[in-house]
């Protein structure tokens, strides 16, 4: 059997973009024949991965890795809810979260270049990702992450694998954990009213203005209606002003004050948030096929 050298593996990897371990396996199977090894990869992995790469990944998993004042929250997407329950996929996502916490990558590209080996794939996160696409048969992508380090204590809460929250705080850990759970349930967009993004306020103001115009009220009254609606919205979406989910007789701010705790920031990830999912219309697809057949 021909010896499989590192340069041969590198050459095949450059040609196919397949994970390094898969290249080595293909070369071994092909007894060192580069063309045959490339063909093996195209059949076994390359076609599957290239086809998967164009498919929407709107499902997935949120994972957290928190240790003291250092932690990370990540979202890794896949195509179906079925794969989001796959043990190998879950292990990959957790590994990615730990790498973010340990290495502080600047972005997804830097994270993808970090060392990782699992399921015979590697030596980088990106190699493992591509290898798992080939093995599982579904596209998957690292979408986003948030890392905390040294700014304060951290509490986190995962609602299954679909919602994840990290809260940066000082004070009582139980109160902070309650806040993380509250965030997952009530989904505030900012800590305080002053932190609500301007574009969201303008959107709410536009809706309120349209409603006021429909009411037919005098301009002076309409203006008060608009401002009242905006202020109501700001209270509803700012964490500190929301009624505490475990006791709606007090706000989150009041609960924290009573517990001697302050929250500096929070991050919430919801799987697939903002990703447009592909909607399959089976009836329309069949009708189109019938029409096409008639046109032949």
From TrEMBL:
<dbReference type="InterPro" id="IPR018101">
    <property type="entry name" value="Transl_elong_Ts_CS"/>
</dbReference>
<keyword id="KW-0648">Protein biosynthesis</keyword>
<dbReference type="InterPro" id="IPR001816">
    <property type="entry name" value="Transl_elong_EFTs/EF1B"/>
</dbReference>
<dbReference type="GO" id="GO:0003746">
    <property type="term" value="F:translation elongation factor activity"/>
</dbReference>
<comment type="similarity">
    <text>Belongs to the EF-Ts family.</text>
</comment>
<feature type="domain" description="Translation elongation factor EFTs/EF1B dimerisation">
    <location>
        <begin position="71"/>
        <end position="273"/>
    </location>
</feature>
<feature type="region of interest" description="Involved in Mg(2+) ion dislocation from EF-Tu">
    <location>
        <begin position="80"/>
        <end position="83"/>
    </location>
</feature>
<dbReference type="Pfam" id="PF00889">
    <property type="entry name" value="EF_TS"/>
</dbReference>
<protein>
    <recommendedName>
        <fullName>Elongation factor Ts</fullName>
    </recommendedName>
</protein>
<comment type="function">
    <text>Associates with the EF-Tu.GDP complex and induces the exchange of GDP to GTP. It remains bound to the aminoacyl-tRNA.EF-Tu.GTP complex up to the GTP hydrolysis stage on the ribosome.</text>
</comment>
<dbReference type="InterPro" id="IPR014039">
    <property type="entry name" value="Transl_elong_EFTs/EF1B_dimer"/>
</dbReference>
<dbReference type="InterPro" id="IPR036402">
    <property type="entry name" value="EF-Ts_dimer_sf"/>
</dbReference>
<keyword id="KW-0963">Cytoplasm</keyword>
<dbReference type="InterPro" id="IPR009060">
    <property type="entry name" value="UBA-like_sf"/>
</dbReference>
<keyword id="KW-0251">Elongation factor</keyword>
